[in-house]
Write a structure and sequence with these properties.
Blueprint: H1 5-8, H2 16-42, H3 48-53, H4 60-70, H5 74-87, H6 89-114, H7 120-124, H8 132-163, H9 169-220, H10 225-234, H11 249-254, H12 256-271, H13 274-280, H14 286-317, H15 320-326, H16 333-340, H17 347-384, H18 401-423, H19 431-453, H20 459-478, H21 505-521, H22 528-540
Helix pairs in contact: 2-9, 2-17, 4-9, 4-13, 4-14, 5-6, 5-14, 6-12, 6-14, 6-22, 8-9, 8-17, 8-18, 8-19, 8-20, 9-14, 9-17, 9-18, 10-14, 12-19, 12-21, 14-16, 16-17, 17-18, 19-20, 19-21, 20-21
Length: 546
């Protein structure tokens, strides 16, 4: 999926009559949000445990809302609804991936929390002692985080430029810089608890905004779901194929294997991102983590249902051809629907557009801040660790300097993502979102599965799996249609796209599992005795007594 509409500026969907009050209300909302965060930060104890994992004290319901909020990003909010609006059935299947992601995390959540490890490097050293697994974890964290920040910050800045009616490239870069600065401030001062509060606010606001546009659309069709769906089909880009698989252009060009590969990386990769691992560890216990996931499943289920309905509503109200004229991927559909479902000049229309703008802002704010903060914690904690000192009982709360290091690292990560986003603004870099998820699915997911479920797994297997998965992702992405040879590629006029699929996941994920197995069975290490202790602790949260 791409964000082409953000740079198009072809259609003024907000309208001059609504722009000024929308901008004023939006700025008031941004200011109030930042003031609230500063107040939260002022009363926080400046200790690592409080900052990093909210003292491991978040209740199951609260953390469940925050977990659901982690899944509501700009790319899901605008991207999934847009794919549904334009491509019907194919969009529905991608929207449902969010629920399957939580199903994957439900399997791992209790074990991750009971292990007592809260960064990727900590978890890697469960089965592989020494500093090399932490180095691998740091590398993977950076490779995942920086591209996500680049794409999300770019979307944030250009969305704000679109909102204020300045679609020029210069204005988009300026808005990207301003939004990136705000998000970096949140990551630095808010900590996990601060971002959790914003997530908890974002979830009901997002659900309310989606419900509003869906119910208003149903009202336009006399509350008849049949008429509503028929209108969506009739006004779509391809009425005969709208509810059949294969309409999405990438699927048509590269076949069902491409679709399968994309589903694999979204489902597996989104479940094991560094911020998700950190979020799980904020739960009170392993069982509380599972209950949090159950709460999140219900909330994300409601979100996905409303998102699909909003996509159909955009097709019915705005029309697929009109959406396609502005944006070939349909990611303007949510904003277009909010602007088109009510009459021009009405106060309700202004209010609805304002709410949608605030929802988009919250989605960017929380997603980017969570990713930035999780990367800063992981990089700082794993870089300062020596061997397995944590494993031997050293409590990270005794290291007061880690707090200052994390804040400085968060600034570095945020500025890096922001700078790259501004520099690459004119290039189609949206493939990086898929690349990041591919790396997470290939380098983290196999390592977690082996660490918690296979007694023979050892350091060689860990390193072969992680580095092998990363190398395969880099090579296949570099020679994929997202880089060259197609209209949506980074360099469309050159051809070295010998790998025909958009995502490397269908190859890299199985290969990472094979490499992890091969490295383990060819190593002289025998970690089976340690595995009994790890298995017992991951299930109960207690140490195995001799």
């Amino acid at each position: 999926m791409t964000l082409d509409f953000l740079s198009a500026g072809v259609l003024d969907q907000v309208g001059s009559d609504a722009r000024r009050p929308v901008i004023m209300a939006f700025m008031v909302f941004v200011g109030a949000t930042l003031l609230w965060l500063l107040m939260l930060a002022a009363v926080e104890e400046d200790t690592p445990e409080k900052l990093f994992v909210a003292n491991r004290a978040l209740s199951p319901v609260f953390n469940g809302f925050a977990m659901a909020g982690e899944h509501i990003s700009v790319l899901t909010l605008l991207g999934a609804s847009g794919v549904v609006a334009l491509f019907g059935y194919d969009g529905v299947t991608f929207a449902v991936d969010g629920l399957l992601t939580l199903g994957v995390m439900l399997i791992l959540a209790q074990r991750i929390r009971n292990s007592g490890r809260y960064t990727l490097g900590d978890i890697f050293t469960l089965r592989a002692s020494g500093v090399r697994p932490r180095i691998a974890a740091n590398l993977v964290t950076l490779v995942i985080t920086i591209p996500v920040l680049l794409v999300q910050l770019r979307a944030a800045g250009v969305s704000v430029a679109f909102l204020i009616g300045l679609p020029s490239a210069e204005a988009q870069v300026l808005c990207t810089v301003l939004m990136g600065g705000l998000v970096t401030c949140l990551a630095v001062v808010g900590g996990l608890r601060g971002t959790s509060f914003i997530h908890v606010v974002k979830v009901p606001v997002t659900l309310a905004a989606l419900a509003a546009v869906v119910f208003l659309t149903l009202g336009e069709f006399s509350w008849d779901p049949g008429r509503f769906l028929s209108a969506a089909i009739e006004r779509s880009v391809a009425p005969d194929d709208y509810l059949a698989p294969g309409l999405w252009p990438y699927s048509e060009a590269f076949g069902p294997f491409n679709t399968l590969g994309n589903h694999i990386v979204v489902i597996l990769g989104a479940a094991v991102l560094p911020q998700m691992i950190l979020r799980v560890n904020a739960s009170q216990t392993g069982r509380a983590a599972r209950r949090s996931m159950s709460v999140a499943v219900g909330l994300v289920g409601a979100f996905v249902t409303l998102l699909i309905a909003a996509g159909f509503a955009a097709s019915a109200v705005v029309g697929g051809k009109s959406l396609y004229a502005v944006d070939v991927s349909g990611q303007s559909s949510f904003i277009s629907l909010a602007a088109g479902v009510l009459d021009d000049g009405s106060a309700a229309r202004v209010a609805l557009i304002t709410v949608v703008a605030c929802v988009v802002f919250l989605a960017v704010l929380t997603t980017v801040a969570s990713a930035t903060f999780a990367a800063a914690v992981s990089l700082t904690h794993d870089a300062s660790a020596r061997g397995d000192t944590r494993q031997k009982g050293e409590h990270f709360g005794t290291r007061g300097r880690e707090v200052r290091r994390v804040r400085r690292t968060a600034v570095f990560v945020g500025i890096s993502g922001l700078s790259l986003s501004a520099v690459t603004h004119r290039y189609p870099m949206e493939f990086l979102a898929t690349f990041s998820l591919s790396v997470a699915a290939s380098c983290i997911f196999p390592a977690l599965i082996y660490s918690f479920f296979w007694r023979r797994f050892n350091q060689r297997g860990m390193l072969w799996s992680v580095y092998g998965g990363l190398a395969i992702c880099l090579i296949l992405t570099a020679f994929s249609p997202t880089i060259s040879g197609t209209a949506f590629a980074l360099w469309p006029d050159v051809h070295f796209d010998w790998y025909p699929l958009q995502s490397p996941g269908i190859v890299s994920v199985p290969a990472a599992f094979v490499l992890g197995w091969l490295g383990s069975v060819t190593s002289p290490e025998n970690p089976e005795r340690d595995f009994r202790n790890i298995e017992y602790k991951s299930l109960t949260g207690k140490e195995l007594t001799p």
